[in-house]
Amino acid sequence: GAGVSQSPSNKVTEKGKDVELRCDPISGHTALYWYRQRLGQGLEFLIYFQGNSAPDKSGLPSDRFSAERTGESVSTLTIQRTQQEDSAVYLCASSSYKNTGELFFGEGSRLTVL
Amino acid sequence: AQTVTQSQPEMSVQEAETVTLSCTYDTSESNYYLFWYKQPPSRQMILVIRQEAYKQQNATENRFSVNFQKAAKSFSLKISDSQLGDTAMYFCAFMNLQGGSEKLVFGKGTKLTVNP
Questions:
Q1: Strands B46-52 and B19-21
Q2: Burial of B111 by CB count in 10 Å (0-12 exposed, 13-18 middle, 19+ buried)?
Q3: Which long-range contacts (CB under 8 A, 24 or more apart) does A37-42 make?
Q4: What pLDDT does residue B97 have?
Q5: What angle do CA A86, A75, A1 make, to 5 degrees?
Q6: What is the pLDDT of residue B96?
Q7: What is the mean pLDDT of residues A92-110?
Q8: Nearest beta carbon to residue A101 from set B33, B43, B109
């Protein structure tokens, strides 16, 4: 596609439920990032995938959070047993080695945990 | 670990005037990139400008320029001839090019409002 696509754009769930957020990066982009942005706050790094290398998971806040990516395709961020503090916008971005550092962001998935 | 600090949570400027947004960072590395990203109210982030640490010359993109002071670990963004469309959150970001993981670390942002 032309840009980074994320789904769903909005998700409302009940505390304790599991949610899956999807990111479809720009075709050919080897790197994919997940960030969390709480209301009015900055971007909190969650996880980084680069090609077939082991991902950098250093930002995942707890073992309730996990993410997968197969090769250079779609990524899924899963949050298990959601808590109210998980409410945030989850942003995905991708980038190419040809333009190091320029991340192309999706519009985000807004998660609300009731 | 690298940290990025933006000390101005909010700023405002009159249309056509110049404004400078501050950013400092902390790292022990020598090879890195610095960035300013813009997040308009529609929330999609876009790159404004990038600076390679090994370059002494300050980066410039049209009305946007940076003042990169490597020794002071300072990286400010100057917006000249401010326009209403410049109203957005601005995030300073750091990427270490050594050590394997090229994750981007962001500051907490500065909310800029351009007034007519």
A1: unpaired
A2: middle
A3: A37/A88, A37/A89, A37/A90, A37/A91, A37/A108, A38/A87, A38/A88, A38/A89, A39/A88, A41/B108, A41/B109, A42/B91, A42/B106, A42/B107, A42/B108, A42/B109
A4: 79
A5: 120
A6: 85
A7: 86
A8: B33
pLDDT tens-place string over residues A13-63 = 999 999 999 999 999 898 999 999 998 888 999 999 988 888 999 999 999
A107: closest CA of chain B, how far (Å): 5
Distance from CA of B83 to the nearest CA of A (A): 23
Token couple for B97: 């090019």
